[in-house]
């Protein structure tokens, strides 16, 4: 294993931050995989899963069982790791500018198209190599004005030519669930089976330009723009956001199981020289992200949930009670659609307009930006 330190743009004189990446296998010998943990730096479960992956990958490399290249980012957000305010860790938004760490990744489709015009032929594999080289150059040329810009460029640079990108996150309190695109989903179904995902949310474009879509969504756009005379392999880069339950689901036994599930999937994709484990049956059907309906608080108050994450509910089921502690008035909150109650807030006090939970429904009912800010 090789450890690399990538220095970020210094925000102020006398301060430095760096991103650490762990590299297993040999570049170019097989599929490339990037696994990154805790881009939202206060979402801790991913870092523990990465620790278990690191231990297993160390052993597998020593045994010569890493066929491809695995890049592991055990803590993908050094900026967010040190953001503490009045004793509380704040890792979702950059405090300096208020930006979400998992939004605003550049769509490089136009830049790559301009770079490869006239250089592609009828061989899809050769075209892929040319396009990936142009993509690496485009990422390297991205302008950097802030420390966050430099982090985004580093992360995209490590991931842009990967065959598989696993972005490990979590929710407040949740069942394990995935976000990906319809084009990626068929190849990712075994991963959902190994992980025991209770919800899979699909969107062509979710809005906000999150990291996983920056890695996967330019490929369908490139294929459409280049046309059949300059073919590319179908969806050469898979990317998925893996939501590892809730923020407090940090336990060795759970993390070890999640790491093993990921290793099973890497073996299935021939990244690791291991027997492929049988794929468990899926625990859910994939549903549109536009069908994920929020439970919204009409006023502030104390939240008492009536259902647990992972439960299947019907539209109209009681999901929570919202109690105004001043007046004593209780407002029942009901399921906005039928489906899986896959995530809820980890706070038991809310303000008016607060989002308290999400139900994954089969019918696309929302439009526009589908992700929270």
TrEMBL record:
Keyword Hydrolase: yes
Residue ranges occupied by any Succinylglutamate desuccinylase/Aspartoacylase catalytic domain in the UniProt entry: 30-201
Hydrolase in keyword set: yes
Domain of life: Bacteria
CDD domains associated with the record: M14_PaAOTO_like
Keywords: Hydrolase, Metal-binding, Zinc
Molecular function GO labels: hydrolase activity, acting on ester bonds; metal ion binding
Name of the protein described by the UniProt record: Succinylglutamate desuccinylase/aspartoacylase family protein
Cofactor: Zn(2+)
InterPro entries xref list: AstE_AspA_cat, N-alpha-Ac-DABA_deacetylase
């Amino acid at each position: 294993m090789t450890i690399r330190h990538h220095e970020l743009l210094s925000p102020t004189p006398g301060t430095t931050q760096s991103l650490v990446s762990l590299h297993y296998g040999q570049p170019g010998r097989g599929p490339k995989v990037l696994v990154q943990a805790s881009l939202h730096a206060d979402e801790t479960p991913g870092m523990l899963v990465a620790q278990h992956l690191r231990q297993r990958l160390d052993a597998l490399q020593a045994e010569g069982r890493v066929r491809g290249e695995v890049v592991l980012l055990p803590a993908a957000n050094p900026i967010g790791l040190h953001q503490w305010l009045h004793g509380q860790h704040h890792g979702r938004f950059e405090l300096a500018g208020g930006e979400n760490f998992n939004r605003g990744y550049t769509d490089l489709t136009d830049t790559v198209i301009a770079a490869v015009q006239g250089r592609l032929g009828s061989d899809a594999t050769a075209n892929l190599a040319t396009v990936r080289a142009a993509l690496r150059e485009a990422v390297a040329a991205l302008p950097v004005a802030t420390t966050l810009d430099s982090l985004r460029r580093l992360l995209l640079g490590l991931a842009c030519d990967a065959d598989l990108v696993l972005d490990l996150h979590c929710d407040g309190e949740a069942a394990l669930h995935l976000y990906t695109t319809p084009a990626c989903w068929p190849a990712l179904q075994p991963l959902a089976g190994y992980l025991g995902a209770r919800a899979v949310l699909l969107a062509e474009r979710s809005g906000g330009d999150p990291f996983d879509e920056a890695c996967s969504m330019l490929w369908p756009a490139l294929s459409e723009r280049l046309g059949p005379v300059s073919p590319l392999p179908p969806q050469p880069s898979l990317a998925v956001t893996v939501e590892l339950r809730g923020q407090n689901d940090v336990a060795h036994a759970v993390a070890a199981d999640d790491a093993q599930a990921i290793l099973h999937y890497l073996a299935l994709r021939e990244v690791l020289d291991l027997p492929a484990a049988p794929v468990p049956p899926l625990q859910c059907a994939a549903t549109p992200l536009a069908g994920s309906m929020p439970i919204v608080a009409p006023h502030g108050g104390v939240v008492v949930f009536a259902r647990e994450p992972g439960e299947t509910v019907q539209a109209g089921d009681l999901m929570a009670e919202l109690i105004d502690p001043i007046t004593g008035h209780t407002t029942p909150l009901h399921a906005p659609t039928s489906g899986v109650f896959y995530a809820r807030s980890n706070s038991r006090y809310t303000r008016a307009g607060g989002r308290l939970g999400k139900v994954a429904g089969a019918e696309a009912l929302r439009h526009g930006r589908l992700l929270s800010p």
